[in-house]
Design brief:
The chain has 223 residues and is α/β, with parallel strands linked by helices. It has two domains: 1-34, no CATH class; 36-222, Rossmann fold (3-Layer(aba) Sandwich), CATH 3.40.50.2020. The chain has nine helices and six strands, in the order αααβααβααβαββαβ. The strands form two sheets. Strands 1-6-5-2 form a four-stranded parallel beta sheet. It has a two-stranded antiparallel ribbon with strand order 3-4. α9 links the parallel β5 (187-195) and β6.
Amino acid sequence: MINDFFNLIFPKLCCACNNSLLKKESVICTTCLVTLPKTNFHKDQENPVNKIFWGRVQIKMATSFYLFSKKGKVQNLLHHLKYKGVKEVGSVVGKLMGYDLNESKQFKEVDFIVPVPLHKNKLKKRGYNQSECIAQGISAAMKIPINTLTLFRKEDSQTQTKKSRYKRWENVGEIFGISNKDLDGKNVLLVDDVVTTGATLEACAQVLIKQKCTVYIVTIAYA
């Protein structure tokens, strides 16, 4: 009764549409779960996300779960995840992605899930890595372990939002490193929140490929 009264005064809102959640709903309302713009790119080897990396870095498969639109519901989800501290968005959407990836033959060989790392300064400031939250959801759905100790960010890069394609690539070209051999020769699923130019993911993939990893990529959104 106390919880019901509290929710009446301070209703829990859907992180996608900002409407009130019903009693058994959590983080994302049922309507949004059904209507959010899924890409189904995981079923298509020639999807637009995969093509971003053609001729740049040799990855096995890349996909995104949702289509991003400015001021749309997917942007709301990402905003809650990255800037409002709602880590549950990552785990909920990650789990949904994981269930879809389980249905794709393209992702059957993955050994480890690796979230794109934050620099320690940014991690301290934010308090969590949003990509790791997503990875936790994927891991729960796919029953594949997460590795957060091998790939690391050597330098704290500036925000990528307003940079050109070349400047984004230049900004992340040498900022990732490998701390141990735990991923050597493994099939690795790289996880991030959104892909635009693919510069950050490309830089991560290049480092992993030098360790003879086979690299897969998945993000919540494709912008």
